[in-house]
Amino acid sequence: GESVGLHLPTLSVQEGDNSIINCAYSNSASDYFIWYKQESGKGPQFIIDIRSNMDKRQGQRVTVLLNKTVKHLSLQIAATQPGDSAVYFCAENTNDYKLSFGAGTTVTVRA
Amino acid sequence: GAGVSQSPSNKVTEKGKDVELRCDPISGHTALYWYRQSLGQGLEFLIYFQGNSAPDKSGLPSDRFSAERTGGSVSTLTIQRTQQEDSAVYLCASTGPSADTQYFGPGTRLTVL
C-alpha cells in the first residue's frame, strides 16, 4: 500500500504486505528528517531519521528514502504487522532546533 | 526516569479556569519542547527551552499561555482562563546535548468544558 502525504492521509494495507508512506516537505534548507509513529493515546515514538547528505537509511523492517530534488521523503515498512497500525508523522528540521511536522498518515493493517 | 513523563495524563476543566501541565524530561537532556496536538492534527510547536538561554516562545498562541523550566529540568505549561479551543493533547519532548532527535512524553489530554 502507498500514501501520498497530505492528499491521502490514510493507508490501508494487508498484513504481510509492504507499506510506503510518503511525505512532501517544504523547506529546501532542511538538513535533518525524522519519522515518528504515534499509537492511539500515546506520544510520538521515534522510528528512524536521515540527514540530507544521505538518500537512504535502513533500520529494522523500515527504510527511509530522501529525494532532495523534489523535497520528498518516504518511509517503507516491510512485512507490515498489526502492531504497525498507527499515525505516522514526518518531521523536518527547519533551523537548529525546531522541527516542523506533517499532518500525519493513518496506517491501518488488515488481518 | 527512562523516558519523558507528563502529568496529569488527563485533565478536564471548566472554561475560564487555569490549568498547569507538568513535564519531566529525560535525565541529562538539556533541551525541552512543548507542542499542542489537536484531534486528528499534526504537532504545533509552542515553546522551546535550552539550558539557561532565553526560551523560544514564538509558538505560544496567546498571552494566556506561559511556560517555565525550573532548575533546567522540570517544566510547567500554564494556560490561564482556558477556552474550549484549548482542548487538545499537550506533548512535551526533550533532547540531549549534541542531539537532534526529540523524545516525546505520553502527553496530557486537556478537555475544556
Spans of at least 5 consecutive residues with low confidence of chain B? none
- Shape label of chain B: globular
Tally the helices of chain A: what do you get?
0
Which consecutive residue ranges of chain A, at least 5 long each, have pLDDT under 50? 3-7
Structural class of chain A: mainly beta
Indicate the multimeric state.
Answer: heterodimer
Please count the beta strands of chain B (DSSP E, at least 2 residues each): 10
Over all CA atoms, what is the radius of gyration of chain B?
Answer: 13 Å
Q: What is the C-alpha radius of gyration of chain A, as a whole number of Å?
A: 13 Å
Q: What is the tally of helical segments of chain B?
A: 0
Strand content of chain A: over 45%
Determine the structural class of chain B based on helices, strands and strand pairing.
mainly beta
Main beta sheet of chain A: 6 strands, mixed
- N- to C-terminal distance of chain A: 14 Å
Spell out the helices and strands of chain A N to C.
EEEEEEEEEE
Q: What order do the SSEs of chain B take from the amino end to the carboxyl end, as H and E?
A: EEEEEEEEEE
Distance between the termini of chain B: 33 Å
Helix content of chain B: under 10%
Largest interface: A-B, 21 and 21 residues
Overview of this protein structure:
The complex is a heterodimer of chains A (about 110) and B (about 110). Chain A has about 110 residues and is mainly β. Chain A is built from no helices and 10 strands. In chain A, a hairpin with a 6-residue loop joins strand 3 and strand 4. Residues about 5 of chain A have low confidence and may be disordered. Chain B is about 0% helix and about 45% strand. In chain B, the strands form 2 sheets. In chain B, strands 2, 4, 5, 8, 9 and 10 form a 6-stranded mixed sheet that branches. The interface of A and B includes residues 32, 99, 102 and 104 of A.
